Every structure is written in C-alpha cells, then in structure tokens.
Amino acid sequence: MTAATDTAPRVGQGQADIVLDAVVLGAGVAGLYQLHQLREQGLRVRAYEAGSNVGGTWYWNRYPGARFDSEAYIYQYFFDEVLYKEWSWSQRFPDQHEVERWMDYVADRLDLRRDIQFSTTITSAHFDEDRGRWLVGTDRGETIDTQFFVACGGMLSAPLENVFEGQDGFRGSVYHTSRWPKDGVELAGKRVGVVGIGATGIQVIQTIAAEVEHLTVFARTPQYVLPMKNPDYGPSEQAWYKNRFEELRATLPHTFSGFEYDFEHEWAAYTPQRRREILEEIYQDGSLKLWLASFGEMFFDEQVSEEVSEFVREKMRERLKDQRLIDILVPTDYGFGTHRVPLEQGYLEVYHRDNVTLVGVRDNPIARITPDGIQLTDGTVHQLDVIILATGFDAGTGALTRVDIRGRDGRSLAEDWSRDIRTTMGLMVHGYPNMLTTAVPLAPSAALCNMTTCLQQQTEWITDVIRHVKAQGKSVIEPTQEGEDAWVAHHEEIASATLVPKTHSWYMGSNVAGKPRRLLSYIGGVGTYREKCDEEAVGGYPSFRMT
After folding, report:
1. CA atoms within 13 A on the CB side of 354
2. Nearest of 473, 475, 517 to residue 495 by alpha carbon
3. What residues have CB less than 8 Å from 471, skipping those under 6 apart?
4. How confident is the model at residue 159, as a pLDDT?
5. Nearest to 251 by CA among 464, 85, 93, 78
6. Angstrom distance (rounded) from CA 407 to CA 405
7. Is the pLDDT of residue 466 over 80?
C-alpha cells in the first residue's frame, strides 16, 4: 500500500496544501484502526494527532496510578489473530506505561506512523457544499482538502482545566490529570491537593498518598467503589487468554457492555439469601462484573437498585469505619451503577493515614484558588504546593465542539450541540455530510462499554459505509432529518426507562455548565446497538441520503 504522503497531489499557492480521500482526527484506539482500514481500502488517508505519539487516552492520561479497569485481554483489537497473540500482558489490569507500549506495538506492527502527522491539532473543518468536500485546518497553518472527515477524538479527551477563579495566580504548580508531564512531577515532600474523587482522582490518591508530605483531598460527589484484584500474568495465564481468541472475538461484540461477561441472573428468581450469595461471589471477582454482569434490574427497578447499592455501601463502611469519612465518601442519593463505577486498590484505607486530610466540598464548595492554596466558601484556606485537578471532561461532545466545525449553510456543530445534543447512531450528524464520528453521543461509549469493543464496531461500520458510497458511484452521504429524529427518539425511550437520567453526572452532561441534559451513551446494550447498525447497512442505509 502506498502511503498517502507519497501519492496525494499538492495544490497551488493559497489553496489546499494536500488533497486526501479521508482525514482521521486522532491516533488513539479508534484512529489507528480507522487509519488501517481506510488505507487497506486503497484510500489516500492521513491521521492528525495533537500528541507527539500514538495512544489517545493512553498518551494523555499518564498521571500517577493510571491503569486499565477493563481486563487487558479484552481491551484488544480482534481483527488480526497474530496481532493479538504476539503481545503478552504482564497483569490483568496493566498500568499506563504498559498500555502505551502496546499502542506503540500496534502502530509499528501495522506500519501506521508513515500516515500519521503528530504534534498537530485540527482546529477547523468546513464543508464546501459546492464540491461536496471538507477543508480541514490545523494549528500549523495547513489546509487539507478531503472527501471524508472521520472524527476519532475520543469520549473523554476534552479536559475541564480552568474551572476555578484565581487558578493562574497560584504560586505553586497546577496539573490536570489528563495533561500530566511526560517527565513526571516530583511530589515527595510536597503539600499536595487533589480535587475530585472520580475514577481518575481515586487512582491518583491511592498512588501518591505514601509519597507526599501531606495530601488534602477535596471531595464533592461520593462514589461507589469496587476493589480491584490484579494478579500478575506469566506464561500460563498468557497462554490461557490467547487460546480464547476465537471465543472472545465471537462473544464480546454481543454482550450488553462489550466485556466477556453478561447479565446472567434474574432478581425475582432467587431468595434474598441466594441474592446475597451471588453478590458476594461476584464482588470477590475484583472486576467490574458486579456492575455489568450481576442483576440488570438494578438499572430499572428502584428497589433492586437500593438493595444492590446497600450491599456496596456496607462493604465500603466496613473498610472506612470512621463516620465522618463514611458521610463524605459513601453515596446515598443515587444508585450503584448509575454513575461510572471505579475500581480501586486500597483507596479507602488511604484516608486513615496521618498525612491525609479529607475535605468535603459538597456543602462548602471551593470558592477560588489563592496564591497559596485552595479557599473554600466559608473562607478556610488549605495551603498547598501542588494542585492536581481530577475535574473530569466535557464528555462526548468536547472533542468536536473545541474544533470549529461548519456544515451545510455554515452551521456550527458547537452551536447546534449547545442547543440539543443529537446524532444519528453516534456515527453521523444531520447537516454535516461526509463527517463520520466515533465515541460521540448516542452510541455506546466509555459510560457503559468496553471501549475497544465499541470503537472497533464503529470504525468498521464507517469503513463499510464509505465503501458503499463509492460502490454506488456517489460522493456525499448525510443522515436524513427523519432518520436522526427516529434514532434520537429510540435513544430517549430506552434511556428514560432506566434510573440513569435521574442522576447528575458526566453521563448526563451535568458536570458542564449550560450543557444540554441528555444521556450521552446509548444504554440499549452493545449487542443491540450492533444489530441496529447491521440492519441499517443490510437495508441499504435507509436513514441516510447519498448524492
């Protein structure tokens, strides 16, 4: 296959710098596979990556303690058996460094780097209606003329960094977890504050507590947590999962969550004693199985939700012991599984250390960052040398709304999504022809999906639809208004039947001021979503118009 960089024609002064068939935004899990597939199709394609290397999430999130919470052997590409089996994982849930090395392995094994432009941010993408093509701009001043614009920017890639008044005036150092310096940060002997106790904050807190002079944790929303069991993998364990390649490839795309396990138990079929035994057995697995493969009724039935939630609360209270810690850290106003469920390793016990202070900020919020630390609404100031912001992301939409994307009639995607977050199956958006998307709202995503399972399916669908457009002798594809309306209605019908929309979290966009409220991830199940995408393709894409 000839590289796009070798074959794409140059265009004259004042016009596009390069002409392509497809531009891929991002070189993470989705971007790498998308680049590989489109290149195999014979297209002139190039990926543009803001980082200096491949990896996406696993490039940017190199904070202390970052690691998988999906089992390594399922967080994999399954299109190539040799690619799968030639890499061996050292643990069930490896850390960021090992995951980044795996991403390097994939890029090198598939010879992808020659068609990736690193350290380049796509800043704009404008659709030219007269020609049916996109003009894509970068922070290097380049303009790319492309037929298809494929966004693989990630579900959780637009960090909420500047969230507090006075942040720029802090005399110490401020770091957002997803923009952690490659060379690391010296924390020994420092007074460190961590803002946020979501999945990322938990990993940071449990990792650095023993290293710093003093750790102050600012906690607003309590989280249900599950203990992680993370055994090392030697040759026998590696042989065990590699021998399951065909089984996993056949199973993962059809479960509810894209994990190897699925809901197997019906609440009403068991006695209270047997339910408790099942919860205990699954809890001891040390994975996300209690969330994604115990009793599915907990997402729909408030009584079941309360009983499962109380089971997890009890486990947390047993470890915390101190009532003040329990009051701040154990959730009581939402159900287990309706927010992201973090795995942890000794996290709760950290709060028993003499050098750790827990500050509840739900009723006494952070007012500002002062030159010396963090000031609360009541005037209390916590003096710090380093502030670590585990403050989350503009999930689902942020990766694209931070790009100046203009569709038909000059319409702005950022403006459209500021009014109502809509997509067609999370794969395209009405009004934006030839823009294809992964990990955006209304498709399964990080909220309720093993991301590699979902991203493989989405990129494969995109590859197939581009092939179909060309085979039909067409050049432009766009969702119809009716098709998009139908998908949004279907998404809302399923979401509203669950307990999730009753909560406040990034799942619903609640963490971003002014963001329209909508469940960002499709909750009908990974297998169901795949079936609906396949039906669309087999039916000749009736929800789309090709010209």
Report:
1. 0
2. 517
3. none
4. 95
5. 78
6. 7
7. yes
Chain segment 286-331, per-residue pLDDT in tens: 999 999 999 999 999 999 999 999 999 999 999 999 999 999 999 9
Residues 6 or more apart from 45 whose CB is under 8 A from it?
Answer: 4, 20, 21, 22, 23, 24, 35, 38, 39, 115
CB-CB contact of 529 with 536 (8 Å): no
Place of tokens 């190897």: 260
Strands 373-376 and 366-370: antiparallel
The strand pairing partners of 156, in sequence order, are none
Q: Nearest 5°: CA angle at 136, between 393 and 487?
A: 55
Token code pair at residue 139? 């922070």
Reduced to 3 states (helix: H, G, I; strand: E, B; else coil), residue 217 is: strand
Contact 385, 192 (CB under 8 A): yes
**Is the separation of the CB atoms in 115 and 45 below 8 Å?**
yes
Kindly write down the DSSP assignment for every residue of 252-273, as one continuous string.
GGGSSSSSS----B-GGGS-HH
Which pLDDT score, from 0 to 100, does residue 470 have? 97
Q: What is the pLDDT of residues 494-515, one digit of tens each?
A: 999 999 999 999 999 999 999 9
430 vs 508: CA distance, rounded Å: 22
> Does residue 14 have a pLDDT over 50?
no
- Tokens 């079936």 correspond to 531
List pLDDT tens digits, range 339-396. Answer: 999 999 999 999 999 999 999 999 999 999 999 999 999 999 999 999 999 999 999 9
CB 193 within 8 A of CB 374: yes
Neighbours of 381 (CB within 10 A): 14
Beta strand segments in 177-240, E: 191-195, 214-219, 226-227
Say if residue 121 is exposed, middle or buried (CB neighbours under 10 Å; 0-12, 13-18, 19+): middle
Question: What percent of the chain is modeled with pLDDT above 90?
Answer: 96
Locate 106 and state its tokens: 């994939």
CB-based contact 151:437 (threshold 8 Å) = yes
Q: Return the structure tokens found at 3.
A: 């590289």
56-107: per-residue pLDDT in tens? Answer: 999 999 999 999 999 999 999 999 999 999 999 999 999 999 999 999 999 9
Task: Tell me whether strands 404-406 and 122-128 are parallel, antiparallel or unpaired.
Answer: parallel
Q: Please give the Cα distance from 265 to 297 (Å, whole number).
A: 9
Query: How many other C-beta atoms lie within 10 A of the C-beta of residue 7?
Result: 11
Amino acid at 541: Y
